[in-house]
Amino acid sequence: MNSIKDNPFAYSRDNKRYHTYNHYLRGRFGKKVSKISLNLGLSCPNRDGVKGIGGCIFCSRSLSGDFGGDPSQSIERQFEDIRMKMRGKWQESLYIAYFQAGTNTYADTAFLKKAFEKALTLDNVVGLSIATRADCIDEQKADMLAELSEKTYLVVELGLQTIHDSTAQLINRCHTYRDFLQGYELLTKRGINVCIHLINALPHEDRDMMFSTAREVGLLRPHAVKLHLLHVLKGTPLADMFLSGEYQPMDMDEYIDIVCGQLELFPPETVIERVTGDGAKADLLAPLWSLKKFCVMNGIDKELGRRNSFQGRLFQSE
Questions:
Q1: How many Å apart are CA 311 and CA 21, to the nearest integer?
Q2: pTM exceeds 0.70 for this model
Q3: CB burial readout 58-87, b (16+ within 10 A) else e
Q4: How far is 239 from 259, CA to CA, in rounded Å?
Q5: pLDDT of the chain along its 318 residues, tens only?
Q6: Do residues 148 and 109 touch, judged by C-beta distance below 8 A?
Q7: Which of 58, 176, 191, 279 could pair with 284 in a Cys bridge, judged by C-beta atoms 3.0 to 4.6 Å apart?
Q8: Whether residue 71 has a cis bond before it, omega within 30° of 0
């Protein structure tokens, strides 16, 4: 692989050919910044019957909070418990309080504001990440988030997963791409940073569909993107599809190839917060190769080097 000096990609500190979260945070804060996952115990409108029942077909029982705090505990206690576990790995880290589990704008605005502002008072917290759905953003909540963004580094993480409404219906997403764009605009017109989540290998999506999702998202020029691999977790409708043979996960080489192609379509300034995801080991049915996270990440680095390519090489603004 080329040396750092020969790397054609400008946003790199460590010879990566894409704009890593670590690169961005070190540039902004001057040192290591870690996320601490917190849990407000919130539900989701496609789980509690408001829009649907059961949630997305891939969502775990903990509403994607498998690695987060215990919602029965206070925000302060959750934060401290997780921070103590992380101290052995990163002694002098700054922190971003990450409200990850459930839909973190799906509650009373005053309640949410109090929780978010409490997190900002915790030791060495320099930012907030708030995971939610675009259809759970309204004018009032957007105004509240805009006030927060004036005080700290704020990122609102919107789970889009795909631009294709046929897939969204299949996975029980219970909102359309148009719904997403409306929520996205409410945030970005107020200057709020948005990170868009995408999932590769959704049922019945081929590589062209995955690339078209990346291309359209790139044109939105988001602050950040997270690329996930679809995990088959025990106890989900997706697990039933997998066990019956209705769903077949992609293999690692195909995933690496698709991620590299997607990175080429994103603007170079967009931060790539992740290029693969974590599934709770005890619940993961497939693909088991996803447990080899560093092999996947190294494979992406090698493939971009083999192509002599980098993030944004094929990006074309329209």
A1: 13
A2: yes
A3: bbbebbbbbebbebeeebeebbbebbeeee
A4: 24
A5: 344 456 789 888 878 999 999 999 999 999 999 999 999 999 999 988 899 888 899 987 765 655 668 889 999 999 999 998 887 666 678 999 999 999 999 999 999 999 999 999 999 999 999 999 999 999 999 999 999 999 999 999 999 999 999 999 999 999 999 999 999 999 999 999 999 999 999 999 999 999 999 999 999 999 999 999 999 999 999 999 999 999 999 999 999 999 999 999 999 999 999 999 877 888 999 999 999 999 999 999 999 999 999 999 999 875
A6: no
A7: 279
A8: no
Cβ-in-10-Å burial (0-12, 13-18, 19+) of 245 comes to exposed
Count of other CB atoms within 10 angstroms of residue 95: 22
Structure tokens at 222: 């988001």
